[in-house]
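[job 0412] stage=complex_fold ligand=zinc ion status=START
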Amino acid sequence: MRIYTIGGYEEVGKNMTAIELKDDVFLFDCGLFLPPIVELEESEKIYNEKKLRSIGAVPNDLILDSLGLREKVRAILPSHAHLDHIGAIPYIAQRYNAEIIGTPFTIEVLKTLLKDEKIELKNRLKSIQPNSSTFIQGKSRKYQVDFINITHSTIQTAMIALHTEEGIVLYCNDFKLDNNPILGQKPNYEKLHEVAKEGVKVLILDSLYSGDERKTASEKVARALLEEVMLTTQNKGQGMIVTTFSSHIARLKSITDFGKELNRKIVFLGRSLNKYVSSASRIDMCPFKNDIQMAIYKNQLEKELKKINKEREKYLIVCTGHQGEPGSILDRLSKSKLPFQFQNHDNIIFSSSVIPTPVNIENRAKLDSRLKKHGVRLFNNVHVSGHAGREDLRDFVTMMQPENIIPAHGDLEKTRPMVELAKELGYKDNKNIFLMRDGGRLEING
Ligand SMILES: [Zn+2]
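[job 0412] stage=complex_fold status=DONE, emitting structure tokens
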């Protein structure tokens, strides 16, 4: 087989990997690289394939055309609902005569993206439950594909096992090993053992934190951190705002649970939260949907904020903007562009960490300094990551015993420590562990 590491190997974003097996090609993920989009001026925010290619925001899959492989693509297989894994589908999937197969939440979020951008794809969208399998018709044979439930920072994330004549390709981008997820199921270790027994030819592995000597804590730890801040600090009579990732449904559940304990009315602000929460509701994975109120559009938002401004002690605001994104709700609140004025000691809880790109770091520093001028209390980093640490990766590789490993999900600085770890486990650089770049090509012999 041949493997093309199209995107996500020199940056955190625009993930895409192609597997070529004689007459058939499969694509794992089709994501966006967000920083160049965040940097666009408001007037330039017109998204189409040409524009997004010109700023390097989508994977450079044109290499498949030059190799004559575009017509051989049989399926696009997104692993989960994060934009760096599905965000480019609306713009480039129509280049392929291929179905798109993902878990129900992934497909629901994708449908919402398509609706928002008024794009109709001709590709068939197919939902497959976590922990089930499907078959994809190739030119002259069928391929079994398993979507194995795994834990991450959004629900219904899958590890994808593609069964080939040369062995299994296991795509593990992104994951952590969380035995106590707040929402959704535990990693399916039983199935993973089965796959390991059958034989993993190639493991494509989320190595973002392979250099971090730790075990990534469970989501239950993030819940405990939130509980500490929300329930054991003095906040009577004060405003309370929590900002987190809109796709992190489990986290939103914890925030909502503690908001209820505080007897506060819970209001979710903005379109982004609505997008993910309504997708989760549609697949019946939003247990808090009756406990929250949504304010989505400008009028609703302003009306709600005017009410909250008068009786802030009775409300919990949940909104986006933890990366300091210009135009986000928290950004606009901090610039007094919305009808809500901060008061001394209002609580702002960041249930997030800064995604370390220069543009995020700068935006966030500016946001914090504006917020501090309002005299508010900031609670940073009330969060645990959704990506496996070095010691999780050691356990995972030991469990799966893959023949070959391809570290993924980041630039070489992020992924290189995985090579060192693999060497500790008996692998040899460039023999059975391969550090790849964007646009790379690797031949694995049967
Ligand atoms: Zn992810």
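The chain has a mean pLDDT of 96.
[job 0412] exit 0
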